């Protein structure tokens, strides 16, 4: 892992691999750069840059009040400056897609394109309720095998996923502690989300509309509880040129190495090369 200093003095980790089109991969809310382990080997001609957000993965924890989309977007821009990148494409999973849309609305000149993984301008409350059910809670499993079995049982909307994939997943999101397993993120992230949720929900459609002038793709889990078919239909109406893949047997979020997801992502990359 490489590191850089944030503007407020945190040491933030990132991976920088490959050569070609710079693509910054932004993970989900509680996730980290390992979110993209499954797709990374499938991206030819791409320089894949994978940061760990503050408070996640190998990055420093900070005041939970800084665990916001706005600050995380600033960290991405600072990373780009650190790497000497004038522009980059963003592959954003869930939270990462929200960051990407915010950047499209505020600093469009820094973006080559955006691919959204199971996220849009309207977030279904059912999915949010599921997230709040586990956010900031320590895992009950004591071993990785137990955690994988539990994850296979509770992940809503996922079918035909082999157990070895679930085992890889739990290694990506959990780590060994003295008394069992622990999450790879600051539990105070829950406080940040609760405080953010206490504010009026902004209209995110203008942020999505800012993508109209750049290559865009959308990966959609067919069984997603966070991104509805109705929201997807409106996104496609507003951005008819957007590449789109509906991934069967997947909820929130697809792994991104499914054939449908890969085809859309590779077509999106081709648009920028």
The number of helices is 9
Q: Can you count the beta strands?
A: 10
Strand order of the largest sheet: 1-2-4-3-5-6-9-10
State the low-pLDDT regions, or none: none
Secondary-structure element pattern, one letter each: EEEEHEHEHHHEEHHEHEH
Determine the structural class based on helices, strands and strand pairing.
Answer: alpha/beta
> What gyration radius follows from the Cα positions, in whole Å?
17 Å
Largest sheet: 8 strands, mixed
Explain what the structure shows.
- The protein has nine helices and ten strands.
- With 273 residues, the chain is of the alpha/beta class.
- The strands form two sheets. An eight-stranded mixed sheet has the order 1-2-4-3-5-6-9-10, sandwiched between helices. Strands 7-8 form a two-stranded antiparallel sheet.
- The mean pLDDT is 96.
Name a few traits of the molecule.
single chain, 273 residues, alpha/beta, 8-stranded mixed beta sheet, 36% helix, globular
Provide a short characterization of the protein structure:
Helix content is 36%, strand content 20%.
Helices, strands, pairings?
Elements: E1 2-5, E2 11-17, E3 21-26, E4 46-51, H1 69-83, E5 88-93, H2 95-106, E6 111-117, H3 125-134, H4 144-154, H5 163-173, E7 174-177, E8 180-183, H6 189-197, H7 205-209, E9 216-221, H8 229-238, E10 243-247, H9 259-272
Parallel strand pairs: 3-4, 3-5, 5-6, 6-9, 9-10
Antiparallel strand pairs: 1-2, 2-4, 7-8
Helix pairs in contact: 1-2, 4-5
């Amino acid at each position: 892992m490489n590191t850089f200093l944030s503007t407020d003095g945190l040491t933030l980790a990132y991976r920088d691999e490959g050569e070609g089109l710079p693509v910054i991969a932004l993970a989900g809310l509680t996730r980290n750069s390992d979110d993209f382990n499954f797709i990374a080997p499938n991206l030819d001609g791409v320089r894949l840059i994978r940061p760990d957000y503050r408070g996640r993965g190998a990055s420093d924890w900070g005041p939970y009040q800084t665990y916001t989309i706005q600050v995380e977007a600033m960290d991405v821009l600072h990373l780009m400056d650190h790497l000497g990148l004038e522009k980059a494409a963003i592959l954003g999973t869930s939270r990462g897609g929200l960051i990407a849309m915010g950047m499209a609305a505020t600093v469009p000149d820094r973006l080559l394109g955006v691919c959204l993984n199971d996220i849009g301008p309207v977030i279904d409350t059912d999915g949010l309720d599921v997230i709040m059910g586990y956010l900031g809670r320590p895992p009950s499993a004591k071993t990785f095998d137990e955690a994988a079995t539990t994850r296979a049982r509770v992940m809503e909307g996922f079918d035909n996923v082999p157990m070895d994939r679930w085992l890889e997943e739990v290694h990506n999101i959990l780590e060994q502690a003295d008394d069992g397993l622990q999450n790879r993120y600051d539990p105070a992230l829950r406080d940040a989300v609760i405080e953010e949720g206490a504010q009026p929900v902004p209209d995110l459609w203008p942020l999505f509309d800012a993508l109209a002038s750049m290559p865009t793709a959308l990966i959609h889990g067919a069984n997603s509880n966070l991104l509805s078919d109705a929201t997807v239909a409106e996104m496609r109406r507003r951005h008819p040129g957007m590449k789109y893949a509906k991934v069967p047997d997947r909820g929130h979020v697809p792994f991104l190495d499914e054939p449908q997801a890969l085809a859309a992502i590779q077509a999106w990359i081709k648009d920028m090369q």
